[in-house]
């Protein structure tokens, strides 16, 4: 369980988030939504301890995140930023890099088994020896997620993980993230721009308006009025073959 209490975030004189109280249970997927500049990435960076909140507290399974040292945090929190890029190593080596927080003087058999298990889980075993620079966008994103999972985190933070992927890869990667959150019982937050992808894959949402305001709840409760107020676009929520959709009008 991630507990956020009275959190305030901002840049310079601008307040992006004010008084945020939120509990995020493990095993589900929380979609962080809002227009550009609303504070979505800022929130994930605060959770990853990459920037200091103006106020508030963050607890993971009852333990203050601020109290964790660098090594302990790297074993508990995995953060995948928008700017993640391929490195000139093999798929196997890239995922093994995620084991660094757990390594002693050398790589152990347990580390190799962990990588093998992740490769199998992500259906990447056939690509284990391929250079990351020769992967498709969808394959590379799965490798980056695999590297994050190799940390064996409790909290998984993904900032726009499908932003540059085609539709087929967006669906595959988000289905993989949702399944992984459930199978590994992770606290998972995903920044998304596409409301309909959020409706399809997320269990809960946090909608930021960029002026300090927010609304959160079950995905099924996200209303057209809430979307219109934040995005300034009239929308209709409808049902198509059992799948909820927001359609601009």
Automatic annotation (TrEMBL):
The keyword rRNA-binding is annotated on this UniProt entry: no
Keyword Nucleotide-binding annotated: yes
Role played: Part of the ABC transporter complex HmuTUV involved in hemin import. Responsible for energy coupling to the transport system.
Gene3D superfamilies: P-loop containing nucleotide triphosphate hydrolases
Gene Ontology molecular function: any one: ATP binding
InterPro entries the UniProt entry points to: AAA+_ATPase, ABC_transporter-like_ATP-bd, ABC_transporter-like_CS, P-loop_NTPase
Domain ABC transporter: 2-235
Record family assignment: Belongs to the ABC transporter superfamily.
This protein's name: Iron(III) dicitrate transport ATP-binding protein
PROSITE patterns given in the database record: ABC_TRANSPORTER_1, ABC_TRANSPORTER_2
The entry's keywords: ATP-binding, Nucleotide-binding, Translocase, Transport
